[in-house]
Amino acid sequence: MTTRTGRHFLQIPGPTNVPDQVLRAMSAPTMDHRGPEFAAFTTDLLTRLGPVFGTTGPVVVFPGSGTGAWEAALVNTLSTGDRVLHVETGHFATLWQRMATELGLYVDFVPGDWRHGADPEAVAERLAADTARTVKAVCVVHNETSTGVTSRIAEIRRAMDATGHPALLLVDTISSLGSIDYRHDEWGVDVTVAGSQKGLMLPPGLSFNAVSEKALAASRTSRLRTSYWDWGPIIEANSRGFFPYTPATNLLYGLDEALRMLEAEGLPAVFARHDRHAAATRTAVHGWGLEVLCADEREHSSALTAVLVPEGVDADKVRQIILDRFDMSLGAGLGRLAGRIFRIGHLGHFNDLTLAGTLAGVQMGLRLAGVRVDPGGLTAALDVLGAE
Ligand SMILES: *Cc1c(COP(=O)(O)O)cnc(C)c1O
């Protein structure tokens, strides 16, 4: 084993780097989750959580990974045999629709090329053709973490509304919440699915469902509902500051601190910071003479950038060299993109010099891997970061 010095660069698009103050907050002694102190803590926490989702409605917090919150969104709103529309934006969309199939739903999977977001017109066409109104929900991944493409949720909602179809809109924001502009209420989303370990700067272990009134109404007749994920008892207990079963108390302490950080910076500034770092990253990639996977200018992710390696180069080999030489982890190509891309995470607890170091490591690693990249790529990115 090589001795490592300094901090590891964890530049995968989640789990992301956890700020020291969040780690410290989580090290506080676990409190009685049935006691009065906890009730006051939870009531304040839940009040401050809504704005991050852009909602005044309930946000249900689960001890669980993002995958659990996917399941919660489906089982609370749907019944066995219901039809749902999923859109193939990449690996995560593929996994979510597979879960829906396994739960006994009939999935219509709108095909995609993994370089574009969900097409609002394609969604509208499918809904317009469904004159019997058998489709109960449309499921879209907001920020497809496997490709670095962000779907235009507001436009999808408008296209759905234009058809007059009553389907619910379920959106996965696991890698966008707290990094990329998102508005649950304003955009008319029915269930927003989120996780703790990406934009929210926490370790893995918490997941979330923001719930519209329409989704809540659907949950009263859902026949897929299971007791662990059931929104009803959680929302009821939350109204008194409690949970029906033991919550992940110390992760909630971390969430409290992470919310404080987001509040201090202000969400518009948080989003602008991510946009700017993503733009500087693309400048580097283009300067190197490489291609970004996202093929639509309107859909570049501000949370991560997926970089295509030239034909004949193994992206996993590049990542291995960067890990061995510079102690930096980058995201692998997932599913059909394995070996073809690597992903640079630039979300969460992140600043200009973290990006400068990250891009320097990528540039050096590419050259060590024998990829002839123009070193002007890094310089061009630094010019973006250092602009007056
Ligand atoms: C990370 C991620 C998931 C999976 O979340 P887990 O916490 O690993 O279960 C799902 N969807 C997207 C978009 C993600 O980025």
TrEMBL record:
Cofactor(s) this protein requires: pyridoxal 5'-phosphate
Protein name per its UniProtKB record: Tritium exchange subunit
PANTHER family reported for this sequence: ALANINE--GLYOXYLATE AMINOTRANSFERASE (PTHR21152:SF40), AMINOTRANSFERASE CLASS V (PTHR21152)
Family indicated by similarity: Belongs to the class-V pyridoxal-phosphate-dependent aminotransferase family.
Alphabetical list of Pfam families matching this protein: Aminotran_5
Keyword field: Aminotransferase, Pyridoxal phosphate, Transferase
Binding site for substrate: R343
Domain Aminotransferase class V: 13-322
Subunit annotation: Heterodimer of a large and a small subunit.
The protein's role, per its UniProt record: Soluble hydrogenase catalyzes both production and consumption of hydrogen from suitable artificial electron donors or acceptors. This subunit catalyzes the tritium-exchange activity.
N6-(pyridoxal phosphate)lysine, modified sites: K198
GO terms, biological process: glycine biosynthetic process, by transamination of glyoxylate
GO-annotated molecular function: alanine-glyoxylate transaminase activity; L-serine-pyruvate transaminase activity
